[in-house]
Amino acid sequence: MKAMKKVLCLVLAVMMLLTLAACSGNTTEDQLIMATNANFPPYEYMEGEEYAGIDIDLAEKIAEKLGKELVIENVEFGSIVTGVQSGKYDVGIAGMTVTDERKEQVNFSDSYATGVQVVIVKEGSAITDLDALGGADVMIGVQQDTTGHIYASDTVENGGYGEDHVTPFLNGADAVNALVAGSVDAVIIDQEPAKSFVAANEGLKILEAEWAVEDYAIAINKDDTQLLADINKALSELKADGTIDAIIAEYIKAE
Ligand code: ARG
Fold this sequence. Notes:
The protein is α/β, with parallel strands linked by helices. The protein has nine helices and 14 strands. The protein has helices at residues 2-23, 54-66, 78-85, 100-103, 147-152, 172-181, 191-200, 225-240, 243-251; strands at residues 31-36, 39-40, 44-47, 50-52, 69-74, 91-92, 107-108, 113-122, 140-143, 166-169, 186-190, 204-206, 212-216, 219-220. A hairpin with a 3-residue loop joins strand 2 and strand 3 (44-47). Helix 2 (54-66) crosses helix 8 (225-240). Arginine (ARG) binds at residues 36-37, 39-40, 44, 77, 94-97, 115, 143, 146-147, 190. Residues 36-37, 39-40, 44, 77, 94-97, 115, 143, 146-147, 190 line the site of arginine.
């Protein structure tokens, strides 16, 4: 009888545990929590209520390979790296450039795309080349905390234009609106978003010269070396079988 009771207790205990597990639903173990800033077409943007873009599709494929459910958090660009660092998010996927400063805070996966920083100006602008950006009364718009912001606001000796010549906006679209409105003279931003903003607004153009060439990669918490290895494996498979090329081709039409 005593033994029966023990077994019963054990069965009950196991059942309770199982119920608990079921109640917490998808534990974080089953999820891949991705932080992004969905105002950056064609990498990530909103299509009505839905997330769309290269990074979103890529993340779906990676989550699938990892056997996890993708959960997307749309946050300010500047809080992605710190959120990944603190463990709030598993990964940051946001057309994010690999930089030495960010590498101090997070790990980066292998690169999955090249990014180019370009300059948008109004058609007929006096700014016709990169040198003109250094003009005494030129004001440059950027998205806050992006490489465009970081590099442009650096000192002239370091290749920037000085903080006084840079106005940060919460997202790229706001910077472009300021350009259209005439409150800034140029916008430095990644090439593909630049193309899409120029296409969406009358009277803008992209300067021919490239301002900087960069690598995009996925930011991962430094302690999560297993996740880094798993993601790099997934990326190399997705590269090898043409999935990544196909995703990019879907959003970026060759000229
Ligand atoms: N490539 C730039 C950077 O890493 C800009 C990325 C902005 N991405 C975004 N989803 N808003 O700083």
